[in-house]
Please model this.
Amino acid sequence: MENFEPVIVAFCCHYCAYTAADMAGSQRLPYPPNVKIVQVPCSGKVDAQHIVTAFEKGADGVYVAGCLEGDCHFKNGNEKAARRIDYVKKYLEEIGIESERLEMVNMSAGMGHRFAQVATEVTEKIRTLGPSPVKTAIAQ
Amino acid sequence: MITAERKPLEELIEYVKPFKRILLLGCNECVTVCAAGGRKEVGLLASGLQMAMLKNGSNIEIHQHTLERQCDPEYVEELIPMIDSADAVMSMACGCGVQQIAMRFKDKPVFPAVNTSFMGASERQGVWAERCQGCGNCLLGITGGICPIARCAKQLMNGPCGGSTGGNCEISEEVDCAWQLIWDRLKALGLQDMYLDNIPAKDWRSGGGNGPRKIIREDLAE
Amino acid sequence: MKTESKLEKILAAGHLAVTSECGPPRGAKPDEVIEKSKYLEGIVDAVNVTDNQTAMVRMSSLAASVIIKQQGLNPLFQVTCRDRNRLAMQADIIGAYSFGIDNMLCLSGDHTKFGDHPMAMNVHDIDSIQMIQMVKDMRDKEIFQGGAELKGAPKMFIGAAANPFADPFELRVMRLAKKIAAGADFIQTQCIFNVDKFEQWMEGVRAKGLHKKCYILAGVTPCKSLGAARYMAKRVPGMDVPQEIVDRMASVPKEKQAEEGVTICVETIERLKKIEGVAGFHIMAIEWEEKVEEICERAGLLPRPQV
Model:
């Protein structure tokens, strides 16, 4: 599909990933505008339904960004998130959506560079994968 | 609770394919506790089904509703205002609930969304294990509170068998030997001598051997 | 004497009894049964006929027992709880006795998971101890399990299995007591490699006087190879094969391993003879029935006494 601009939803935890996004912003680090950031108190708060609804509404890719392992502000919310994402990946395959469109990433509050890097990498990965099969179907 | 697991999406798509409007029903009790068919799971299934059907080039309308229980007719009656607008019903409740819906709405196809498994308890978050097989004549009082019918792979009443190894059943290291558990409990209670009593052959009539079972409370039934 | 069983007669006369095993074939192949039984003729006092062993379907133990009886040997008909309900069991027991088969072994049975029909139901209408009680009542009280009168009662010599090596060890003597209380006349143990542990169990058995209430036949098996020894040590639930045995098998070259296995078996029998309460031996030489004669010969168990 020509001129395909992926729509990426990034659920970012307030304590680490969202702060890292802020840092990227204040350091003027460029990252693709394709990434729509949704702030959550903790990555563990992201429900399977939030992720699935994002795809239903036309997202081509979704990622959940939480604190580094062992550093979750709420003890182990990021571990729960990781398990949940594995579970949703399997569900996506059942639905017929490639599980690579969803991933979990970890970063600390000071990692502005990492935030920008992840945003860029995911956007490119999804660009290569193409539009989500659901979006294609809606279009038809 | 009664435990269940969602059927593979593939199977569910086959059920709903011929229809345009589905009523997807959850249940707020057992299947909510084991995260198989509660309000949340209804939402997830509705999204998943819709996307899958879209991918296959067809559209489907899914109306979501969760009842307090599907095994009581009073709750099923709540569906009357919404039943006519559906071509078919898919229920995420256990087999009891699915059948209750089917019996009430005779002209609507009703499909199960979950595979009902066993009567069990939560071991910890996310893990449910079989505890009871409804034998109809509970002997937990003489087996230290552990059921040999539900938890022994051979339902021995005078166990253990010769395959018990390191506290595990011969079938798997993941399965406790029920008789090891019973013995440990009897010891903790100082009731070791009880072990020597041979439990006689069971009358399975109370356990379903007399056909499908029914309980009637004369004081309650009109 | 509770029965007319030749095995009971030998044990009652105070001789060391010897039994062995015959696994029926996985097909309607009576010649294979006849072939195996030829190796045991005159060598043993009774031949166990296994019942869908390891949950693999084979010719029924009843049918194979009949064939063995027809060959002039003395079958010991094994019945598991896994495949039959109490109606079928009683029917088979009456049927077996009608062919003159008067020894039986009551077992739980390996779980279907291990066999070729893991999808089948495990029946377990009654357990092995309840089966022993049932057969005892059929024989002595002449009643069916359901209570009705039984004319033409089967006078079975009732056996059970015992495993001194299964967990929990502290229960294993009590378990034997339960089986005897239910009516077991004799027991055959799981094959013994760890004679020390067996002696420990026998101490517990003698302390309760159980060896006087029931004949205990000690089980032995010859290892065919180092691989077989390792397999039994690691993969068979409820088996105790000490490292020295495995090492001993490993210490001889491959061509000599079978011979070493037989030697270990004979030595084990000699040690077991010295243990008070051992009333005989149950030699399990699966798919190696031809070795039983040599083992009995070398262990001084031949010729078999005539009663």
The beta strands of chain C are 17-22, 46-49, 75-80, 103-107, 157-162, 186-191, 215-220, 278-283. Chain C is about 40% helix and 15% strand.
